[in-house]
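Quick review question:
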């Protein structure tokens, strides 16, 4: 072969590769690849040729819907639809039907039928324009999944009323716990410069049903509540509105002092109350559909009502009164713990909030993290779920992978979200039932966003799947993690059945692998200080006991684990008796929570007969082996997916494997100083000794931005 021929072949090969999915990741799950199945291609061409839309062409949401249909048709079936004014002429019909009783205000109903002329028709009905837009995205998802039009029958309404992203983004664009660049919100150039990203962001959220965004960090800056910044927030709200997305702000409790020149922020003080009312009026005059405030109070140094000897309810209610006339809400976080409290940190939120059940105003929701400590790789569900029957509660998940390997580890969170949602709070009720149960008409879920200005939005190409999974579960918490992974892969990487199965397998195993190489058997909070990257079970130098890893694993010559049963902190008593029964005995406790609830001896007999020490070693190594397996599975699809994406993920998986070994070796060498037991026979030898691991230091690890 001549050199030129080889060159041509290489170029052709590269071209083919580059036209495959998931190029630089910017398009997320809306790449709208050309339909490869010829039969379906033709069917969809016919269907999408004539479309009827509601005739209010001035409406921005309908205009967005139209644009989406044009874009998707062009890319998937290489044609432009014709929009007609007569329903009878159309093959796809979008229509408002207020009487449609199968759906709620945001829901949609999509039905295929054969009309009198023997033509296939798809009718999308909703009660509102935003419902139609959600229906449109659902239809386009089904087309991307190459579903035969005759099979399309779906009626769907979101299970939860509030489906919200929480951005921990700061005024200077740093992102607390962000691993995907700086914040997408550029406060310096707003309101005049409207980055196209804002629109793309809103579109992506709408495509998965997210209907709210808190654009500022929970560690709040009062400046956001000044007029100069509210005007900037208004610019964002105006962009997001037609996509069905409301804007919320975090409210710093001491704002009346900091920007209002008052002497106090006491929630019972009339001037303070009045200040918040005026502030709310000002916000609503700019943003009539402003969602409300998210508040982190009396937690990790943030000011709050307790500074004035008032309760969380008194603080929340004062703000709730200010936004109530405008139909706004207050989301009050239950993530509180205090260092003066000698009480087990896992117990403190429940102790504070349980007595306040029923004491909050009707427009207040309490937002509870999935577990009682802090977004650890694995935690049992938070005992407040099910314990506040008279208070609307919201689930808070962390999509950004602060404790989950950040943006270098491939960890699909679908199984983790589901594990929590499917946990039983008693014999007959699951967390999912508690979260779905509307109180005062309110229910919701929040996810701490993993979004930044990286070209692919989320840093790791697979981290997008977590944003996607969060949205899909917020809409329908009953979907399975594997179904969500499957549809995400089809819309991003491939439709080839074998490759799809391999990638899905990688994703579905990734969560358990990560738990195993970081914190198996119920261990938790043993990561590096500050940035939280990598292992540091020996950590014991921070000013607060409950910030230090040794507080959590409690290793000593006798054993390891936190005794949270009756002989210890008794945190287990905060759960229903039915749950307590499952976990309170160390010989029957589900072993994934063993060291969360029990301090057990190094020779404790596990259910499989191993000693605890040996099992700990095996579990850590299982995690490492799992990542090695993910790595070789990924290599096996190398030539069948786009080269750029393949290479990115390959490099990251190499880092993940190194990190997994690092976690295993550092943790076990350290725990061995207490167990004084040898590693099991043929156990892989650590690359370095313990002092080496203890000497590692990462002052510039990302995500610590304030
Ligand atoms: C912790 C984070 C910290 C957050 C805090 C919170 O390390 O940066 O401010 O959660 O949720 O996990 O308020």
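Suggested answer, residue by residue:
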């Amino acid at each position: 072969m001549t050199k030129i021929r080889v060159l041509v072949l290489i170029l052709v090969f590269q071209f083919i590769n580059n036209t495959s999915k998931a190029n630089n990741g910017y398009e997320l799950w809306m790449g709208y690849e050309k339909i490869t199945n010829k039969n379906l291609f033709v069917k969809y061409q016919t269907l999408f040729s004539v479309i009827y839309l509601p005739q209010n062409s001035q409406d921005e949401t309908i205009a967005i819907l139209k644009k989406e249909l044009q874009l998707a048709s062009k890319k998937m079936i290489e044609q432009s639809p014709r929009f007609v004014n007569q329903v009878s002429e159309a093959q796809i019909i979008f229509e408002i039907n207020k009487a449609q009783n199968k759906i709620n205000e945001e829901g949609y109903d999509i039905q295929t039928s054969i009309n009198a002329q023997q033509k296939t028709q798809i009718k999308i009905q909703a009660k509102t324009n935003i419902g139609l837009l959600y229906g449109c995205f659902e239809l386009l998802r089904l087309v991307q999944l190459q579903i035969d039009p005759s099979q399309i029958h779906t009626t769907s309404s979101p299970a939860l009323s509030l489906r919200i992203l929480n951005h921990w983004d700061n005024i200077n664009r740093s992102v607390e716990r962000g691993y995907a660049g700086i914040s997408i919100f550029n406060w310096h150039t707003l309101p005049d410069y409207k980055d196209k990203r804002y629109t793309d962001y809103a579109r992506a959220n709408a495509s998965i049903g997210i209907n709210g965004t808190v654009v500022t960090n929970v560690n709040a800056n009062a400046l956001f509540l000044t007029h100069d910044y509210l005007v900037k927030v208004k610019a964002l709200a105006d962009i997001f509105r037609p996509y069905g997305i409301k804007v919320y702000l975090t409210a710093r409790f001491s704002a009346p002092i900091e920007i209002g020149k008052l002497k106090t922020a006491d929630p019972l003080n009339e001037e303070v109350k009045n200040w918040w009312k005026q502030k709310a009026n000002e916000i609503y005059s700019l943003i009539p559909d402003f969602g409300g405030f998210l508040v982190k109070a009396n937690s990790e140094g943030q000011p709050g009502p307790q500074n004035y000897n008032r309760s969380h309810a008194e603080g929340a209610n004062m703000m709730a009164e200010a936004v109530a006339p405008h139909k706004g809400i207050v989301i009050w976080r239950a993530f509180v713990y205090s260092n003066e409290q000698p009480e087990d940190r896992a117990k403190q939120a429940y102790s504070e909030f349980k007595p306040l059940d029923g004491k909050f105003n009707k427009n207040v929701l309490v937002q509870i993290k999935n577990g009682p400590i802090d977004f650890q790789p694995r935690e049992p569900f938070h005992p407040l779920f099910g314990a506040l029957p008279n208070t609307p509660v919201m689930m808070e998940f962390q999509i950004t992978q602060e404790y989950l390997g950040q943006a270098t580890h491939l960890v699909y969170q679908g199984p983790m979200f589901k594990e929590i949602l499917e946990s039983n709070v008693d014999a007959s009720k699951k967390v999912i039932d508690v979260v779905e149960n509307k109180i005062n008409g309110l229910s919701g879920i929040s996810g701490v966003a993993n979004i930044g200005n990286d070209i692919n939005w989320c840093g790791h190409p697979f981290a997008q799947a977590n944003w996607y999974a969060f949205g899909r579960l917020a809409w329908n918490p009953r979907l399975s993690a594997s179904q969500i992974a499957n549809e995400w892969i089809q819309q991003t990487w491939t439709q080839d059945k074998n490759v799809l199965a391999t990638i899905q397998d990688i994703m579905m195993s990734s969560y358990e692998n990560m738990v195993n190489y970081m914190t198996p058997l119920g261990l938790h909070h043993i990561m590096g200080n500050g940035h939280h990257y990598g292992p540091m079970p020996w950590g014991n130098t921070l000013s607060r006991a409950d910030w230090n890893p040794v507080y959590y694993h409690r290793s000593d010559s006798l054993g390891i684990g936190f005794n949270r049963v009756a002989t210890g902190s008794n945190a287990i008593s905060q759960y229903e008796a039915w749950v307590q029964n499952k976990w309170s005995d160390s010989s029957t406790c589900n072993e994934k929570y063993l060291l969360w609830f029990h301090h057990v001896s190094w020779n404790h007999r596990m259910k499989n007969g191993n000693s605890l020490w040996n099992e700990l070693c095996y579990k850590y190594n299982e995690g490492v082996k799992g990542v090695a397996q993910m790595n070789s599975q990924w290599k096996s699809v190398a030539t069948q997916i786009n080269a750029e994406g393949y290479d990115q993920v390959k490099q990251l998986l190499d880092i993940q494997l190194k990190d997994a070994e690092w976690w295993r070796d550092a943790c076990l060498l350290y725990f061995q100083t207490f167990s004084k037991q040898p590693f099991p026979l043929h156990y892989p030898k650590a690359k370095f000794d313990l002092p080496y691991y203890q000497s590692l230091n990462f002052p510039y690890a990302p995500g610590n931005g304030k």
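Why it works: The two ends are 59 Å apart (CA to CA). The pocket of beta-D-glucopyranuronic acid is lined by residues 176-177, 218-219, 296, 300, 335, 374-375, 402 (CB under 6 Å).
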